[in-house]
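Model the whole thing, not chain by chain.
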Amino acid sequence: MENRELWASLNMDLEKHDDFLSGLPGVFTSLFLDRPNRPKAMGYFDMIVGDIHGIRVKELVALKEKGHKVFSTFCVYVPEEIIAAAGSACIGLCAGAQYTVPAGEKVLPRNMCPLVKSTMGFKLERICPYFQVSDWVIGETTCDGKKKAWELLNDYIPTYVMELPQKKKLADTAFWEHEVKEFAAFIEQETKVKLTGDNLAEGIRKINNKRAALKRLAALRKASPAPIHGLDVLLINQLAFFDDPERFAGQVNSLCDELEERIERKEGIAAENAPRILITGTPQPIPAWKIHALIERAGGVVVGEETCTGERYYKDLTEPAEAADQMLSNIAKRPLNVNCACFTPNTGRLEDIVTMANDLHADGVIDFTLQFCQPYSVESYTVGKELDQQNIPHLKLESDFSEEDQGQLKTRIDAFLEMLK
Amino acid sequence: MIAAGLDIGSVNSKLVILEDDKPVFKKTVPTRFDPVSTGRELLEQVHREYEPQEIVVTGYGRVSFPESRIITEITCQAKGCHYFYPEISYILDLGGQDAKVIKKNSQGKVVSFVMNDKCAAGTGRFLDVILKGLDLAPSDINLALEAEPVTINSMCTVFAESEVITLLAKGTPKLSVLAGLFKSTATRLACFIETQGQPDAVIFTGGGAYYRPLIHQLEKQLSSKVVVPPEPELTAAYGAALSAKMK
């Protein structure tokens, strides 16, 4: 099936969708393809972006024709393993484009997280085929903005909301385990697939393999000179949310093989003395590339992301178990090790940032917050204090998905890199 | 050695030429929304008349001169201020387009900095817009030192403008409104400085440092000394020239 036929069959607004996608090839070429010395194995990921609303969407349509379902998520806390176990697809949705923000503002307040507005806009405008192909959105109660937006989104697509606790005490762990088991029952009912020890083990294996591959890639960024641009890794982290998990893990591992050879030869994409930057803060969903791009254009190199489009997504694996019930318990345990600013207290995140900065030999940390994200912007104060104590230089940046503040961001980033020299 | 520093700001472009660390030429011209030709003209003059060995371009217009050595205005500001006041760590720069607070160390190197968010609030532009609305002669501005400030709550340029109009319509004296404007700006800037620490003294630079009532209000709110370099709009250009020298 041709892409346009596919998109029409998904009831997309073709005209708006053309307009939305028209800018992407130019941006992608200048930010990614024109950069010298990229690893050859990036070819696969470039190809995915080259047909970002084609290949994978067709696979999902084919999956649905076989009677499976597509579940869309926006958060690393949603247990992918359970969906994979039922043979259905779990995809993280597009939420990082300015293009759909005005449409989102038709129903949401302007002074609100751009990620939530972008998401809402994609659905209202019918320009995201992943949204269109989805049977359900699986929301969660990480922040107030999302929590309330799900109520509105439910008018356009069935939305299931998981309640995430805000503390990590024993009672919260038990509560979340219950929430995960209830979700498992919901998935069984929706997919008509009984969850068993066998299929859950398989679901855990698949998703663990994907996380392990991403962890392997993250660890290779400790090398100096840096073997890969941070922007390339960010792209891979973004694609991790919607590609087929097994094929994706294979491709990431091939890339890692190539990078190991590079490291062996002491070959890098930047000079050995290029300032090494760790990013911490809010997610950068596809196509939000500007912070990484500005840093690397200014001569720095991003060596890690303590974000949901980075370390938080893959740092912990789910422990395997013998019985199905224990597997579900382990699936519930894993995400509670993730330190999101929606939890209080959240001191674990400070440890994560400092450990990453040290392990990756970062020269400085950039704390990036999306506008109007209260949990992360409040926590910035604590993060800054901790980094001061550790004598790690840091810079706070706040932005959204628009391009208009590139000049201001560039001055700040350039000055920060000068400061590190 | 002759070194030149060119600072292309959003309102004015500034040039400083140093010979063995002593200024031999200084010039300020309006940028007039045309950073490229303004910068080019100044650079041509520099080459023609002084033949400097090294040049550094800084300021928001620096990106238009990729063939030159470019350094951000943050690094240059710290260096330039260090030349005048090596013992003071904190710098407040109030320019046309942004406000920044820079903390430097004993070598004049930046250790941290913050800039206002993408909005005119608390910048030179904010003061410009409101002052224009008040229709006062520049010589009247210092009279605000004597006036009792009224409260102005809005920091958004557009909202503050309408707040000022309302106050004037109610018969509030212009000078009280002006004093209130400086007071509210000083409050915002003082909090901004205190996000970086508690200074004993602050170097105040940029065009905003010419407003004496603002300096007065800042000193009051920070309980610290505010010093202004002889030509506060030139310090980043000084810093650029000093950086040019140190290749």
